[in-house]
Amino acid sequence: MNIVISKKHNSTNENTVIALYLYSASIVDVLRSVLFIAGIQSDYNDLIRNVVYIGVFILYFKYMVSNYKKITIITGLFILLLVFSIIINRDIAGFSTTLILLFFSRFIVAIIMFSSIHDFDLFSDQCHSWSWIAILYYFVYTVFSRVYITNYSYNMAFSYNMLLPAVLSLYYLIIRQKRRIYSIAIFFFSFIGILQFGSRGAIACIIASLLFMITYLFIDKKNGIIFISLIAIFALIVSLFSNEILNFLVQTFPNSRNLSMLRSNSFYELSNRDNYWKIALDSFTSSPFSFRGIAGDCECICDYLRINYSLSYYSHNFFIESLVSYGVLIGGGCIIAFGNRVIKVIYNCFKYKNANSLVFVFLIPYITFMMISGSIWQSYQHWIVFGILINRSVLGYKKMNAGNKEVVLS
């Protein structure tokens, strides 16, 4: 076991910029809704979106300069992978510009930011202080949807934008036990927004995080019994009055897709994901050693459906995407390394009871997302997880404080 003495922490400004990155999609949506209501043409909406993303990138650029080695290595690997992928599948060339823009504007920023955070608890404090954006987002989107959209029952992007404030507020209520009134308000509007407009995937991410928090409390016998008892009582009440609660919610939010699916007993259906999984896995088993390159699962699914090649048709599962795109040797090796690192991070978090916001707020929700939605080449959440795993490999785990010095174990 290596012991390293370190005094290094991210500055408040750096943490603020990273928090703004996480909330940038919500900020863009708020601005776009306001501009639309004001009668400004939709062309300007795309301009505003790009300005916000580029602005956050510029703000963080001075912090990225110190990580030039990581940037060089990650960028080099991406370019090599893209070149090999284009050689193998010429259709990828048509999407190379999009992939490059996404990589430099979103993906590399996410992985560098999260691989460089030294204190996730301090960073979570900064993120939580910005969670009021969720309330603003909810009210703006609600007004916008009711007035300007005929069918406003579903918006997957909205629900995943609300995911961070939802799990953050739960974490502060259950684990940190701080700013309870503020946290309750944030969770209420975030979860109601997800329930009203959002996808089941975001709800699954929240439940996964909650289950890990309960497990953590169970281990912490001193305070855990009280909170687990309260959660159990709440769950019992909900189960006893589930029909009444569901009827009330349906009457309150009649256009909610989630509530309609709950009422029709179709809430647990996979929305065609199982077909995509089967198509991709059949392709993999027929040629397990094939290296198809970037978005190889998209190629398989589009070929099977006999449609033009598109990055929009993907497997919705990180493991399947890795196996189909890179074969059993490279893809399987990446999965084993990924799983091994995740288990170590969670184990050390529970063992040392430290930096647990890293697990509950970011790692568990976003890994859940990786298993049921998104793609490496579509979603920045994947790159946040990769950044966290690199972070813990380099920085280790804090065990105790020794004066102004931080004792780190890896």
3D structure, described in words:
With 410 residues, the protein is mainly alpha-helical. Helix 1 runs parallel beside helix 5 and helix 2 crosses helix 4. Helices cover 75% and strands 4% of the residues. The chain has 17 helices and three strands. The chain is globular and about 60 Å long. Strands 1-3-2 form a three-stranded antiparallel β-sheet. The N terminus and C terminus are likely disordered.
Instruction: Classify the beta-strand content into a percent band.
Output: under 5%
What level of helicity do the residues show? Answer: over 70%
Uncertain runs are: 1-7, 398-410
Largest sheet: 3 strands, antiparallel
- Shape by Cα distribution: globular
Global mean pLDDT: 80
SS-based structural class? mainly alpha
- Computed over alpha carbons, the radius of gyration is 22 Å
Distance between the termini: 6 Å
Summed up, the helix count is 17
Strand order, sheet with most strands = 1-3-2
Count of beta strands = 3
What sequence of helices (H) and strands (E) makes up the elements? EHHHHHHHHHHHHHHHHHEE
